[in-house]
Protein 1
Amino acid sequence: MPSYDQNNIFAKILRGELPAHKVFENQKAFAFLDIMPRAPGHTLVLPKAPVRTILDIGPEDLADLMKATQTIARAAMIVFAADGLTIQQFNEPAGGQVVFHLHIHVIPRKNGVALKPPASFKEDPAVLADQARRLAAALKGV
Ligand code: 5GP
């Protein structure tokens, strides 16, 4: 498998070299809104460790990533008045991965509302800013 590329988009976001609508950060994990959400509140949760796929991450970092994912999922249910959640994670191009820093998709769902196709719709930055502010507020102090 290819090695980790330090210049992938999410590595640049983690280093603060590119902007993102951040919602959560702790010692091991970082989360921000997807710029092409498949539903309102679509959030990406990343390990800070430089890993390409789920095959590469150590067990402790993986546990921390999943804990952060659950924390964000619980907050997203409330903030986006969701009826459920879709959690997705893709590995390598064959698995549907497009950005090669491991990440988990947390997508709030409403009954009867289909997901938008991947990368089909770029959200208004003002909408993302408002959603990120509300989700970050719900996650403050957790
Ligand atoms: P995957 O690699 O799991 O297939 O998906 C990558 C995800 O990253 C997609 O849902 C896409 O919309 C999102 N994405 C791609 N580029 C950017 C970016 O520059 N900023 C943010 N916030 N999301 C991005």
Protein 2
Amino acid sequence: MSFSKKEIPRKATVLVGAQFGDEGKGKLVDYLSSKFDIVVRYQGGANAGHTICFDDKTVVLHLIPSGIFHENCVCVIGNGVVIDPDALMKEIEEVRALGYNIDGRLFISHNAHLIMPYHKSLDSASEESMGGMRIGTTGRGIGPSYVDKFSRIGIRIVDLLHPKTLEEKLRKNLEIKNTLLTKVYAKNELNVEEIVKHYCAFDRTIDSYVKNTQMYLNEQLRQGKSVLLEGAQGSLLDVDHGTYPFVTSSNPTAGGACTGSGVPPTYIGNVIGVAKAYMTRVGNGAFPTELNNEIGEKLRTIGHEYGATTGRARRCGWLDLVLLKYAVAINGITELALTKLDVLDQFDEIKVCTGYTVDGKVLKDFPTDHETLCKVVPQYRTFKGWKTSNSKAKSFSEMHANARAYIEFIEEFLETPITFISVSPKRDETVFR
Ligand code: GDP
Ligand code: IMO
Ligand code: MG
């Protein structure tokens, strides 16, 4: 028997944060969800905070995909996500309380790993011990949970369905973690019986959502269904491609969408990068265009730049095109969504970083070692502000000429089209090109 080369419909789209997270991915995914059959979260955990504003409601999702407010959309939490069962249950209740049906349209991968109480304790204990070198994590236990996954001692969703194995694994892990907490970090030990009881109870609540989501997604794609893969965090927080060690512990970049969901790369047709019209970062690490002055303060105030998960003030700065060019390259971004353009409405002048120098020498590419990145001097190009709102613009041509010039410059620099321009947190206030 002979087979000819397969024609695969490229009906999967990846959506990634192109900067340091909080680019407005939640708004974009919610906006796009009416056009997709399935939305999948593929990495990260409740460190994410994806804000969605519709019908005068503001909802922050941490684990459930941002397609949940579209009743025709199925939502999948993929194998690459690390799940805090308490946080997930709380979120399910919140969505239900808003009047949305979840049954039969939320599925959780049986291979996803769990966040355990010891992961959270170790996250904060490790941060404390790092002093000035701390990462500034969200404290949600993300790093320690991925450590266990790769050490092959992690506990997965599927283990909740086998109470005996779960209890055995938990007791073994707690023995090790309690030694670590008490002997290395001088912290109190965790109560083994309480944790065993608490986690064993999850099997009943979680049972109906658990699925072999890898095979489910493959079948749906084969049948011609469309899938949106929702990244959390941002490209520069990627453990491989980001500003290591000041990164998260997963792969938010486009490659992570395949490993974190089981959707093969052959199904992926395009990659949407979401970028703010300026930049923010929460937590520590290099940020070449950061503005530690009244301009940064103005961006923070107008943009309400406070973390959706931890409430921490976000560091603010001008848009960095050297960094974005790198993000476009490593993700294979085919189109960009530019968000929060309205935050720049009140500025006389707007700067954009178009190059880096180190010791007077121009750098060709974004440096991937943190030491060098801390030393770069950004080179700026200045644009005239538009000093008006573009919120009533229904098309690109209706936007102010100075705003259009700013957007067109970014497109040309990045050689990538900007197909969505967001000028408000609300679902409808998006200019689609
Ligand atoms: P995510 O993590 O990428 O989903 O982004 P976050 O939800 O953490 O942060 C983005 C914040 O900006 C949220 O408060 C959104 O409601 C808000 N937002 C999104 N798009 C826009 C926009 O175009 N203009 C304004 N002013 N706010 C926006
Ligand atoms: P969304 O999906 C912004 C940052 C933390 C810290 C680093 C590591 O809302 O864009 P972690 O808790 O992951 O070990 O922390 O990553 N961080 C985020 N910053 N948005 C996020 O998610 C983030 N998730 C993690 O502040 O610097
Ligand atoms: Mg966020």
